[in-house]
Amino acid sequence: MSSYKMIVMDMDDTLLNSENQVSPDTAKYLIELQDKGYHVVLASGRPTEGMLPIARDLHLHEHDSYVISFNGSCTTRVRDGELEAEQSISKKDFDRIVDYCRDNNIFVLTYQDGHIIYEGEHEYMNIESELTGLPMHRTDDLKAFIQNPVAKVLGVDYESHIQELSQAFGGVFNDQIDVTTSKPFFLEFVPHGVSKGNALHSLCEKVGIDISETIAFGDSMNDYSMMEEAGYAVAMGNARDALKEIADFVTLDHNSDGIVYALKKIL
């Protein structure tokens, strides 16, 4: 066995192909690696409920592994759904984010009880539901409907507008809230200090693995922190240029079993 012990990977456009599925070859290989003693962890901007079916398909529950969801806000044990770590956006900050999205004509949604909660309409409004498989619930007023803290808020709009707003933020909404992008049309608002990289650090401490013993795979800017922190960083062939620049290796794209291609070289 190599010096690496944990393999952590983003889902959309990394583990999952354009059909939103794990290829049979990739699934088989990741299951075999776990049988050999490697930890496989999924880390995504997705809500937890939008990750667990794929985690179970990859047998993460049988190997006592974890998913990092909402860009690092939550870490959950797959076997029993036990929440190991959680950070959330306060009601006050949630209202501010909704106001900001309304003022800038961005479609806005959040998550509650396994549902996507949204107001308004947009050409891209169903994308998150199509990706995650979660049902959508419409409300006339998000601020009135949501009364408790949330893990993440998602702004959705056309790529050029999201890019423009993302650059203007420089990663920070206010002292309490950070901003990142996953898909080019998603603007993700998360609690300050929440990132896949920080969540990976905490998980490594919990399971007794040094972060230098991890391999991380990603394609988007919300994977940047995780790839910076990991012992070995792999950018997908379809990754943003910024990720390719910090990667130790650039593999094939997400439609060409890029994860398997890289791991066979590294391990």
TrEMBL record:
Domain of life: Bacteria
SUPFAM superfamilies: HAD-like (SSF56784)
Signal peptide, first to last residue: none
CDD domains referenced in this protein's UniProt entry, alphabetically: HAD_Pase
This protein's record includes keyword Amino-acid biosynthesis: no
Sorted UniProt keywords: Hydrolase
Gene Ontology MF: a single term: hydrolase activity
NCBIfam families: Cof-subfamily, HAD-SF-IIB
UniProt protein name: HAD family hydrolase
Species in which this protein is naturally found: Staphylococcus simulans UMC-CNS-990
